[in-house]
Write a structure and sequence with these properties.
Strand content: 15-25%
Order of helices and strands: HEEEHEEH
Distance between the termini: 35 Å
Number of helices: 3
Bound molecules: guanosine-5'-monophosphate, zinc ion
Oligomer: single chain
Largest sheet: 5 strands, antiparallel
Mean pLDDT: 96
C-alpha cells in the first residue's frame, strides 16, 4: 500500500476537488492555495520528481497543464499566471510525487520571487553552455 498522499488522491482513497483528468494525469485544487483556483497537475503513476517521469507521459501531463491554465484564465479573467514545479527538498518540494502548480496572479498581489541575479564574467557563459550541452542525452 502506498503512503503517498497524491497516490491516495489518485486512487480516491482520500477526497480532493478534482478538476479534470486524462490518461496520464489528474488535476486537483491545492488544499492551501496561493490564490483561489491554484491547481496541481499530477501524473497518475508515482514518480518522485520530474527526472523520474518517463518521456511517454510528459505530453499528457503538459497537455492537461495547458487545459487547466486556459480554464483558470477564463474563469478569473486573468492577466497572468505562474506555473512551476518544485523538485527536491532544497527547491521547496514537500510532496515527493511529481506535480506542477498553476496559480492565478493579480496586480499588486504581493507575491515575490526574491532573486539576486548574477552576471557571467567574460567567457563563462560560453563555457557553461558547453558543459551543459555535453550532458544532454536525448532530445525528442
Ligand atoms: P510542493 O511543496 O511539493 O511543491 O507542493 C505540494 C502541494 O500539495 C502544496 O501546495 C500543498 O498545499 C498541496 N497538498 C498537500 N497535501 C494535500 C492534500 O491532501 N490535498 C490537496 N488538494 N493538496 C495538498
Ligand atoms: Zn505517489
Amino acid at each position: 500500500m502506498s503512503t503517498c498522499i497524491f497516490c491516495k488522491i489518485i486512487s480516491r482513497e482520500i477526497p480532493s476537488e478534482i478538476l479534470a483528468e486524462n490518461e496520464y494525469a489528474i488535476s486537483i485544487l491545492d488544499l492551501n492555495p496561493i490564490h483561489y483556483g491554484h491547481a496541481l497537475i499530477i501524473p497518475k503513476n508515482h514518480h518522485k520528481d520530474f527526472l523520474e517521469v518517463p518521456g511517454n507521459e510528459i505530453g499528457g501531463i503538459m497537455s492537461l497543464t495547458h487545459a487547466i491554465a486556459h480554464a483558470l484564465v477564463k474563469t478569473y479573467n486573468l492577466q497572468g499566471f505562474n506555473f512551476f514545479s518544485n523538485n527536491g527538498e532544497i527547491a521547496g518540494q514537500s510532496v515527493f510525487h511529481f506535480h506542477i502548480h498553476v496559480t492565478p496572479r493579480y496586480p499588486n498581489d504581493d507575491i515575490h520571487f526574491q532573486l539576486s541575479l548574477k552576471k557571467y564574467p567574460d567567457g563563462l557563459m560560453k563555457e557553461t553552455a558547453q558543459r551543459i550541452k555535453e550532458n544532454i542525452s536525448s532530445i525528442k
